[in-house]
Model the fold of this input.
Amino acid sequence: LIGLLTSSILMGAALPSGAENALSPWPQQLAQRGPNPQGQERLMESLNLSAQQKQDLNKVRQKYQSQMDSISAQLRTRQDELRTLMGGNANDDAIRAKHNQVAELRQQLGDLRLESMLESRKILTPDQRKQFAQLMDERRSRKLHQGQGLSN
Done:
């Protein structure tokens, strides 16, 4: 999960709208922004990963990270370009074309995340998967309450 969490957390929520629910509960960690070493460490401890599992998960992260970083950078650039077009005098066709570029990059990033998640989940035991899903549900619930101005 080291790799899964790191790559997912670093990438932010760039799945296409609605795609998160199709992958639930795995994409919940995608909603996080920026690395959270303390949270990752607590999660690792909670799942009681073996040294081999940690090593295998790190290999999965390394396999996908550079591709995800590259696509993420392209996505940010295209999103900025789209905002510029929307705020300017661009015609509708140019805006649609840029929107399609953004959508394509989101799809590519989502596909890479899914493949990373699928490889990562094979490393976890069935009990660890279940526990991970529960932890992500708890995190989602906390974030939902925080987003509504409520506290746990």
About this structure: The first helix runs from residue 2 to 11.
